[in-house]
Amino acid sequence: MNLYTRKDTVVAGKEILRDIVGLKTITVTLDYTAFTAGIIPAGTSLIFDATTKKTRPFDKTKDAASNEQVSLLFRDIRIDTNDVQAVGLVGGYVKESKCPAITPEFKAKAKMLDIR
What are phi and psi of 75, to 5 degrees? Predict the structure, then answer.
């Protein structure tokens, strides 16, 4: 019997989903040059860039007329000086209050996301 107890701190990201019904995800490659190094929070608006073949942050003025795939970052992720593969949410029920800066332009593009 081990009498030496050990405590570990586990850090969890915020939950951006209202429900798991209709959940649809894709794998995205985040372009490290398009992000500031550090933690990218869950719920960040993303768009696929056909030129670089990678995903970058959604820009409401530049991407308003784009037909490329949009998604939300599903979990917090750290990015530094390399591209990172992550999970993008393309379908499901999302809590808008938990997502940083979702614009009306992004909502119009994200047809399979119910953002409230």
Answer: -135, 155
Domain-embedded: residue 77: yes
**C-beta separation of 30 from 86 below 8 A:** yes
Rounded to whole angstroms, the Cα distance separating 85 from 91 reads 19
Which amino acid appears at position 23 of this protein?
L
pTM: 0.83
Report the run of H or E that residue 105 belongs to, with start and end.
Answer: helix 104-109
Question: What is the count of structural domains for the chain?
Answer: 1
Output the domain CATH number for residue 28: 2.40.300.10
Residue-range definition of the domain harbouring residue 52: 17-115
Of 24, 14, 1, 2, residue with least CA distance to 91: 24
Angstrom distance (rounded) from CA 37 to CA 15 = 22
Q: Please list the rounded mean pLDDT of every run of 10 residues in the chain (116 residues).
A: 72 78 92 94 94 95 92 92 93 91 92 90
